[in-house]
Structures are given as C-alpha cells and as structure tokens.
Write a structure and sequence with these properties.
The chain has 335 residues and is an all-alpha fold. It folds into three domains: 32 residues; 194 residues, no CATH class; 84 residues, no CATH class. 55% of the residues lie in helices and 1% in strands. It contains 13 helices and two strands; from the N terminus they run H-H-H-H-H-H-E-H-E-H-H-H-H-H-H. It has a two-stranded antiparallel sheet with strand order 1-2. Helix 11 runs antiparallel to helix 12. The longest helix has 33 residues. Bound molecules: heme C (HEC) (2 copies).
Length: 335
C-alpha cells in the first residue's frame, strides 16, 4: 500500500537517484489510486424525476443501445443530483453524449454488452438488464424491485403512450429521430428480447432492422428506466407496496407448485424460472400423461385411479394444478 508518507519518501529517493520517468508516473498513478475511496454498495439513492429519466433512457439508447442506455439514464441522473460516488463511474455526461451523437462518435460505457438481449443473442431484454444492474447498485431491496420490474415488463404495452407522445411532439432529448411516428404498441408476454421484438414486429409490420423497430426499443429503454425509478422512488419512501406487488402469472403460480428450483427431481424440480410459462408451453396434453406416471412418495393411490385422473386432464392448466392438490391431499393423509 502506498501512503502519502511513503509516496513522498519514494519520490525523494527517486529524485535523488535521478530516476524520474516512467517509474515516477507509475508511482503517481499508485498514489492517485490510494486516494480514491470507493464506498460499498448500495450507493446513496435520492428521489429522481421519472419523466426526466424516461427521456434520458431514450437518449441513452441512441448512444449505447438498450442496456447501456437504461443503465446510463439512471446512473447519470443520480450523478447529476448526488455527485460522488457516482463521479467514480466511467460513464459520459449528458453533454458528452449529446456531443458524441452530433459528431457521430462512438462512446464506450458500462452495460453495452447487454444490447439486443446480450450481444444480439436476444435473451434478457437489455433495457431490463441495464435497469436491474442500476437497481442492484442503489437498493438493498433489489431482488423485490427487480421482480416487480420484470413482471411489469411481461404485461406492459410498449412503447408507452407517454413515450409515443414525447416522440411525436419532439420532446425527447435527441435532435434527429430514427422515427417520430406514434408507433404501434404490443405486450411482450416475455422478458426476452427475442419474444418482445418478434411480437412487436408481427403486430406492427415493421422489420427488426427498421428504424421504427430501433426507435420502439429506444422508447422502451426510456419506459423501463422510468419504471425502475418509479419503483426506486417508492422504495426510498418505504412505500413499495403502494405501487404494486410482485405476483406470478396465474399459470406460472400453478406450474411452480411442482416446477421450481428444488431438490425433488421426480416432482418436477428439474427446471427453474419465474417467466410466464404459458407464453411458450401451451400444449399440456403429453404432460398429463407424464404426471400419470408420477409416484408421490408415501401415497398408495391405485394405478387405475391415477389414470382416470390423468384422462380427465385436457391440457387445462387448472386441471394440472388440481391434480397436484389431489396428490398433496393423498400424501398428507398417509403421513
Ligand atoms: C402436479 C405437479 C406439476 C404441475 C402443477 C405441473 N407440472 Fe409439468 N411436470 C411435472 C412432472 C413430475 C413432470 C415430469 C414427468 C415425466 O416426465 O414423467 C413434468 C413435465 C413437464 C414438462 C416436460 C414435457 C412434458 O410435457 O412431459 C413440461 C414442458 C412441463 N412439465 C411444463 C409444465 C407447465 C408449463 C406447467 C404449468 C402449466 C406444469 N408443467 C405444471 C409436474 C407438474
Ligand atoms: C420463452 C419460452 C419458455 C418459457 C416462458 C418457459 N419455457 Fe419451459 N422450456 C422452454 C424450452 C424451449 C424448453 C426446452 C424444450 C425441449 O428441449 O424440448 C423448455 C423446457 C421446460 C421443461 C423441461 C422439458 C422436458 O422436456 O423435460 C420444463 C419442465 C419446463 N420447461 C417448464 C416451464 C415452466 C414451469 C415455465 C414457467 C415458469 C416455463 N417452462 C417457461 C421454453 C420456455
């Protein structure tokens, strides 16, 4: 470790020896590093203006795409209001971003890898990825807030009415729009970039490489950053429950009675997740037969009885959950 004292001593020795050059610069660098104090997370959060952050998210997308944009919108808004420790982040200021856009210059910042669902692989929506990273930096309640944000995203209309309005009235911060039309809206039913973008393209008739699709995601990045800040503001006031609660989709809740991260493989705990199951798994018929073969430890239900129950399953989700409670009651009774 280099303390101020040892640094000065080293400097003296170096000066005496006449070794002033790269060694000197290295020493200065080491010194500078010891002087910077980086506080542990979470960093201080102050109430932010939701609409300001929405516009920052849209601007951020133009410079860094969805993940970098949503992350930057929240972090830069905090840096503008709080200063240190956000001054430690290697992110450009709003002025620098606007200047870079004017000059068509590329900027390198945090979370850009998340673009297009991570490097264009279309997995987790980048706006969610960037916003969740920001949330994690500023709140102890990041898991709850993140769950609320993700579930909201599955059910929200994108782009929002607000974002469509800002764009059509040229009230966002960008000077030149990819498109200033009021864009068609869609519900993604998924946190995945792939599903979100594909659904929107299908609804709108725009191709994934069109300026309109890109503009849709810019507005979405603003909407997601704004929602994250709305939740963080509520969290700061201790009023998170007032803006909503996290609940699984009805289907997911029923599937998760068996399919969750657990140790009972036979019961269905060979998968995990909180996503809306019904977005992808629709045909539950083969599933019904699978469950028929299921042996619940401690039950003595006859094969005929189970098969009869299985035959009654017509792929209706409620029926699957019903079978579960049936098996549960059997297993309880035999204990
Ligand atoms: C009553 C417990 C239970 C519930 C509720 C349940 N599952 Fe399953 N599921 C299982 C078990 C156990 C298996 C493995 C059965 C096997 O392969 O023999 C399974 C298998 C599956 C499979 C593997 C392929 C197949 O069809 O066999 C899928 C996909 C699946 N479940 C999805 C779902 C979804 C989606 C829901 C909610 C709509 C759901 N499950 C609800 C217990 C359940
Ligand atoms: C984005 C689409 C998607 C969503 C949402 C989704 N799944 Fe899946 N799931 C898949 C795919 C794809 C597979 C792999 C299927 C395969 O390889 O046959 C899979 C596999 C599974 C399997 C194992 C299937 C097997 O063959 O053994 C289970 C069980 C399962 N999912 C349950 C669920 C549950 C429960 C939910 C909701 C919490 C859910 N899935 C949400 C797409 C999805």
């Amino acid at each position: 470790m280099v303390t101020r004292r040892s640094f000065l001593k080293t400097l003296g020795v170096l000066a005496l020896g006449g070794v002033i050059g790269s060694t000197y610069r290295d020493a200065v660098k080491a010194f500078a590093q010891t002087e910077v104090s980086v506080p542990p997370l979470p960093w201080p959060y102050v109430e932010l203006d939701v609409e300001y952050v929405r516009k920052m998210g849209h601007l951020g997308y133009y410079a860094f795409e969805c993940a970098g944009g949503a992350f930057w919108a929240i972090m830069e808004s905090l840096r503008e209001k709080v200063g240190y420790p956000y001054t430690l982040l290697p992110i450009p200021t709003r002025d620098e971003v606007e200047a870079a856009l004017d000059e068509g210059k590329h900027l390198h910042t945090l979370m850009q890898y998340g673009a297009g669902g991570a490097l264009g692989w279309a997995s987790l929506c980048g706006a969610l990825n960037g916003a969740a990273a920001a949330i994690q930096m500023v709140s102890e309640n990041w898991k709850t807030i993140g769950d609320m944000l993700f579930r909201w995203y599955e059910t929200a209309l994108f782009p929002s009415d607000k974002s469509n309005e800002y764009a059509s009235k040229h009230e966002f911060f960008v000077k030149k729009y990819k498109s200033d039309k009021v864009l068609p809206q869609s519900v993604s039913h998924s946190i995945l970039c792939h599903v979100s973008v594909s659904n929107w393209c299908e609804v709108s008739g725009y191709a994934s490489g069109s300026p309109e699709r890109s503009e849709r995601c810019a507005r979405l990045a603003g909407d997601v950053a704004a929602k994250a800040v709305e939740l963080l503001n509520a969290d700061l006031r201790g009023e998170l429950e007032l803006v909503g609660t996290f609940t699984y989709s009805q289907t997911t809740a029923s599937c998760r009675t068996c399919h969750f991260k657990g140790t009972n493989y036979e019961m269905g705990q060979f998968t995990r997740g909180k996503m809306q199951c019904e977005t992808c798994h629709t045909d539950m018929r083969p599933h019904a037969h699978s469950i028929v073969r299921l042996e619940v430890p401690g039950t003595s239900s006859s094969p005929e009885k189970t098969v009869a129950t299985g035959a009654a399953l017509t792929g209706v989700i409620g029926a699957v959950a019903g079978l579960w409670s049936y098996m549960r009651s059997k297993s309880k009774g035999s204990k």
